[in-house]
Specification:
This protein has 194 residues and is α/β, with parallel strands linked by helices. The chain has 5 helices and 10 strands, in the order E-E-E-E-E-H-H-E-H-E-H-E-E-H-E.
Length: 194
Amino acid sequence: MIAFDACPLCGAPLVSLDVTETYDLRPALPFSVPIEFAICSGCSFVCQKRVLPLDVMNRYYADSPKLRTGAASESDTSLYADQTLFMAQSGELASRRVLDIGADMGKLLDHLADAYGCETFYQEENATARAWLTSRGRHREAAVLVDDEPFDWIVLSEVLEHVADPVPWLAGLRSHLARDGRIFVEVPNHSFWD
């Protein structure tokens, strides 16, 4: 585990939220992990006080038994419409190149392709989800990012909270954006512990 006493974004002290969730990572990994949440006293970023190293997280997501389905539910459809409306209000979205990191089953990418005519790409660590995306052939895998093929949008939907050192990671993504490219970031709202 990597422990934080200071905010990984701004460096200000972290204040415990007195909320600890225990996640059972079996069978993908042979252990459970208690996660204590904290809030930054400077920028109000909510994060985990201890996180698993990225290589361990990648092992978990590569084999996670999480229930996955390719069909969008009514609530999924509403969420994707809200997300893409927000994106479209923030910058041009129609017919753009979009990379979804942690795309799961590609339902957001389906919506972007259908509603906006986007050229869609994905990165996904989970073998089941990646096999599903590959078998459908609707979106292209971007397993290795190439600097000469920039994206207009990079989507991080419920991904950033899993990155132990987000600032250099985000800075690295910048080189894969077009000149006027944007990153869409969505993280869980700590006000709702569902």
